[in-house]
TrEMBL record:
PANTHER family: HYDROLASE, METALLO-BETA-LACTAMASE SUPERFAMILY, METALLO-BETA-LACTAMASE DOMAIN-CONTAINING PROTEIN. Pfam families: ODP. Gene3D superfamilies: Ribonuclease Z/Hydroxyacylglutathione hydrolase-like. Residues 14-206 form the Metallo-beta-lactamase domain. InterPro entries: Metallo-B-lactamas, ODP_dom, RibonucZ/Hydroxyglut_hydro. It comes from Pseudaquabacterium rugosum. This is MBL fold metallo-hydrolase.
């Protein structure tokens, strides 16, 4: 996990990038935008040469997730995994022709992505927050890479410190989740799904990982959280003064 590569004086949101290595194969999850590219590339090659990357994986298509794609398509020949919803949108991040034959659409029901001798499991997380959205579960480390679910708005230094108690972190999480998650219905569906997994860590794309008791506390918190369209009414849909 790289948590402090987007330090531009606070103008851009903090974002985490992830490298998975199994044997001689590697994968990047949510490689980020151009702010992170140079430092991420230099950090990555200390663990896995770029030519050994077997996947570039995106939870969705926001700029802080995948805006550096043009540079990664030059640096590596790895295929790009993203929801079928976004397959024809992400070429807009690249020069013409650079994504040709390299995009593998993840179907709505998810899929298993081979990394070396193991795999990552793409879990459906639609509307949490994007229309086509996936999380990635690593059955070896039992880490759930949760994208924008579980986010806390903190500094890169604070993001590097795992959180064991949700109560301390809620002031940095609640406003984001009420705005960026679409509805409590999908949060309940997500909670039911992940409750069947063995999870040792939930790692969001922004902010600190959740470990120990904070994992179960978070799942139960979102299960009962009104958010998104639950909070919308006529006062949010009227002409400005």
């Amino acid at each position: 996990m790289f948590s402090d590569l987007c330090d531009d004086g606070g103008e851009a949101v903090q974002a985490n990038q992830f490298l998975i290595v199994d044997g001689e194969a590697g994968a990047i999850i949510d490689p980020g935008g151009n702010l992170a590219y140079n430092d991420l590339y230099m950090a990555l090659v200390r663990h896995c040469p770029a030519r050994q990357l077997s996947a570039i994986i995106a939870s969705h298509a926001d700029p802080d997730i995948i805006a550096s794609l043009d540079r990664w398509t030059t640096a590596t020949s790895a295929p790009i995994y993203i929801s079928t919803v976004w397959e024809r949108f992400i070429p807009h991040f690249c020069k013409p022709g650079k994504t040709g034959g390299r995009i593998i659409g993840i179907p709505d029901e998810g899929m298993r992505i081979r990394i070396g001798r193991s795999e990552l499991i793409a879990l459906p997380a639609h509307f949490l927050h994007a229309e086509g959205n996936f999380q990635f579960y690593d059955p070896i480390s039992r880490i759930l890479f949760s994208g924008d679910l579980g986010v806390s708005i903190v500094s890169g230094r604070e993001a590097a410190q795992p959180v064991r108690s949700l109560a301390h972190q809620l002031p940095f999480m609640e406003r984001f989740h009420r705005r960026y998650m679409v509805s409590n219905k999908v949060l309940r569906l997500w909670a039911d799904m992940v409750s069947t997994l063995q999870i040792d860590m939930i790692v969001p794309q922004h902010g600190a990982p959740l470990v120990g008791p904070a994992i179960g506390e978070f799942i139960e918190w979102v299960r009962h959280l009104p958010c998104g369209i639950d909070l919308m009414g006529p006062e949010q849909y009227r002409l400005p003064p």
